[in-house]
Every structure is written in C-alpha cells, then in structure tokens.
Amino acid sequence: MGLRGKTVVLEGLFTRSRGGDRSAEATTLQPAAERPTIALALGGGAARGFAHIGVMRTLLSHGIVPEIIVGTSIGAVVGGCYAANQLDGFEAWARGLTVRGVLGYLDVNLGGSGLIRGNHLAKRLEDALDDTRIENLPTRFAAIATEFTTGHEVWLTRGRLVDALRASYALPGIFPPARIGGRWLVDGALVNPVPVSAARALDARLVIAVNLNTDLFGRGTIIANHGSDETDEPELIKQDNSMRGMFGRERFLRRHFFGRRRGPGIPTVMVEAFNVMQDRITRARLAGDPPDVLISPRLGEIGWFEFHRAEEAIAIGADATEKNIDAILEAVSALTHAVSPAAGPPK
User: Fold this and answer.
1) Active-site pick, 163, 187, 279, 292
2) Torsions phi, psi for 294 (to 5 deg)
3) Is 187 a catalytic site residue?
4) What one-character DSSP code corresponds to residue 160?
5) What is the DSSP letter of 79?
6) Distance CA 30, CA 46 (A)
7) β strands within the chain, DSSP E
8) Residue 229 annotated among the catalytic residues of the structure
9) Does residue 71 register a pLDDT over 80?
10) CB-based contacts of 335: which residues, under 8 Å, 6+ apart?
11) In terms of CB atoms within 10 Å, which of 27, 47, 49, 174 comes out highest?
C-alpha cells in the first residue's frame, strides 16, 4: 500500500498520543457509516499477556483505535485497563516487576480452592480501577469467564470491572473461583481462549485477534508406540512432617512457580496441562470463526509465571503487530469502501 493509500485509511480514525490517555485524543471522526467498527480480541497466556501492551501501543501509534475490546484472562486485564484509561499505569507497573516483586504477589493459600488467594493482585487492580463499572467505560468491553459447574461461557459486560477481571484470570487450581451474579466463575480460556466470536457478537465489523500461544502449535502430535524402559527410575517421594517441613511449605510452593531441578512442580504440571487444552480449543475456535487479522507474537521462550520479563514480552508484541500493520490498514480500507454510501451496500 502506498503512502497515499495509507493516508486515506487513517482519515477519520481517532488519533492518539503514544501515552494512551484519552485526554490526548483528537475527536475528528468520519461518519460511522463510512468506517468499520474495529474490535480487539485479546487472548490468554499469563505473563505472556504483557505482549498485549506492545500490540496496543503499536496499533495506536498507527492511528488504529479499537471501539470494542474483548479479552480472556490476562487479555481481559490489559484490555480492561486500556478501556478504563489505566494502560499507562499498568505498563509502568509491569515494566517494574522483578522476581522478588512477583513473589510478593504470591499470597499462598494452603487450605483453599486455589494455591494463591490472589488478594495482593486484586488489591493492585482495586487501587487502579476503584469502583469503575464496565457499562460506564468509554470503550465497549467484555471479559470472558467460565462457569465451572456448568461449562457455560460467560460474557461479563456489566458490573464492577475489577470483579470481571478477577473472574476472567482465575486459572483453576492456581486462583480461587470468583462469585459474580450468583455464578462461580473461573478462567475464560477454558472455553474461549481468543474471543473472536464474542467480538463479532458485539457488532464488530473488523476483528483483530491476538493469540499469545502460537508457539504451542505443532506440539500436539501422536506418539503411537511408547512404554517404559530401563532408563526409567522410580521416583521416591519423601514427606517431611516435622515442624520445619510444615513452616517451609510456603517457600517450597513459591519456588515451584519458577521451576526446580528435579521434576515439575504442581503449578508447572497444571499450567502445561492447561496449555495443551487451550491449544486444542484455540485451533478449533479460530478455524470456525477466524479473525480478519491474526497477530501471533512468538512468546514460547517466556514462561507463564515469568512476569518479570514484561519488557521482553511488550517488545515482542510490538514487533509482531508492526509486521501486520499493512494487512490491518488494507482491511480497514477495504471495509471502509464496502460500507461507504457512495459505494453502496456490500454484496
């Protein structure tokens, strides 16, 4: 696409400063009938989700401003902070995380329905979002969650934003479920990891989706002949019931989130199993309802709990988006002409 073509595409879209606050927006806009409604469908992926920040910053720098945001898990958190004008603060917090800082958010729960209570993280979101309600956001927003007792896919489109985000990222076994409107809700990635279908249902004409787990594709092959052999060693499980063992369990669990030398820890097993399931669901759902443009940051080297690597994830997200900018601008241009009164209704 030439310079003139890109200029035509950008006419009528919101322009925004790189900082992301709506106070800096210019509100010159083409008539709604002459431009497509743009939606972002932001997928789940724990620490990899910081890549969404790079995606959004790059889109905004090119004048591409979404009017609808639908997010699952960490995608809901980043999208919700953007919709509430809190992306700047969220990004600054993310970039400042260290390994020690991440451990400070692990309020380990030895007797509940999740390994982490999640109160420290929820308090951080409460401080930023306060009592912001979804229905009052300037950008249309939905967080995807799962009712674990029925398997229902739940779109949280009203009520307190922080409650919706907490439900959407409640990874089963890691965080306890959240009770909203009489339903017990957990991570939306159980049913809709990259919520393109929800974005279309909210009247989006152009859907840009971000899949954080592209590097998982190709891992799920079939091993048709496998069994034990002489290289296997029996695993001896030792249990420490002493007082020292009891008081050391919290530190033991915390270390598991960043791995250990001998065998995977509980969170690693849970997350890898969740990865397999999410990969299968993502493939099926994207095949049945593909987005107009799919952004696929290569984040395989960043672990799910490596939140201290935010700068890397943000840069990877920005780079992946930059590579897709021409395709996005061409899609905007095509759909703008398709709905233009001069061009008549699309055939």
Assistant:
1) 187
2) -115, 120
3) yes
4) B
5) H
6) 37
7) 38-42, 68-72, 140-147, 152-156, 178-180, 183-187, 206-210, 293-295
8) no
9) yes
10) 35, 36, 205, 206
11) 49
